[in-house]
Amino acid sequence: MNKKIISIIICLFFYSCGFQPMLKNYDISKLNIKKINYSGKNDLNYLLKNFLNLEEKNNNKGIVINLSIAESISSATKNTSGISTEEDLTIIITINIQNEQNNDLLTDTISETKRLSITNNMSTDEQTRNIEKNNLIRSLSQKIKFRIQTAVR
Question: Which residues touch 132 (CB under 8 Å, ≥6 apart)?
């Protein structure tokens, strides 16, 4: 009985304390971005641009965002005859954000890995790999948006 009363009081305290998430109402489209530089493989850059959906503004003031994307594929497991049966697909993105004076606001590297099964059908494996690249870049783009918001704020 005492635990219920204490938990109700604690809930009421946190409810009325005025806590609000820092980035809840933050609109990233209002962010003043002078330039976004992408480097890495073209197909990965294309996906990253689409998922980020950031707009550059043509003026002299604003932040500069440098994004470098890379992928690596490595054998994870092999069967008894030495043939790979699973591989790890890793997407790595390096972020650098600079203000108008070219001072670094943020330099960070984020990555995600997905383990994929390998079959005897190469076209199916390639299709699966492309789908997983899509998913990994979508997830990483959300993390990049969050890091941009926190760095600028």
Answer: 89, 114, 116
User: Cα–Cα distance between 149 and 129 in angstroms, integer?
Assistant: 30
Is 0.85 topped by the overall pTM? no
Confidence of residue 6 (pLDDT cuts 50, 70, 90): confident
- List pLDDT tens digits, range 104-135: 888 999 999 999 988 888 888 899 999 999 99
- Total tally of structural domains belonging to the chain: 1
Phi first, then psi: what are they for 7, rounded to 5°? -65, -35
Q: Is residue 11 part of a domain?
A: no
Exposure of 22 in the CB half-sphere (CA atoms within 13 A): 7
Asked if residues 65 and 49 have their Cβ atoms less than 8 Å apart, the reply is no
Q: How far apart are CA 147 and CA 104, in angstroms?
A: 13
Six-digit token pair at 2? 């005492």
Please write the tens of the pLDDT for every residue from 35-70: 899 999 999 999 999 998 888 887 778 889 999 999
Q: Is 76 inside a domain boundary? A: yes
| Residue 5 within a domain | no
Q: What is the CATH number of the domain that holds 50?
A: 3.30.160.150
**Domain housing 78:** 25-152
